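User: Predict the structure for this protein chain, please.
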Amino acid sequence: MATKKQKPHQSGRVVSVRLEEELIGRLDSLAERTGRSKSFYIKLALRSSLSQLEEYHWEQVAARFESDTIDRQFREIMAQITEDDEAAKKARKKKD
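Assistant: Here is the predicted structure, written as structure tokens:
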């Protein structure tokens, strides 16, 4: 169902997330014990872990790129070796 686009609020935009009951219960308890809002703890958790998640993602992207590059270079080298071997065999046959 489409909703009207909200105007930006000075404290940020609203994001909806579905959470398991167990997480909601823990969040409710923490907020109640400390007198802070659930939003406070959700923002805190995101701020503290988002950099690590981004870093992990870019490490994986870099590793895939490196692996793909190595694989491509290996295939190119092997193709060149195969071509060189074929050329050498043909040259030997011509000599014989």
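The two ends are 80 Å apart (CA to CA).
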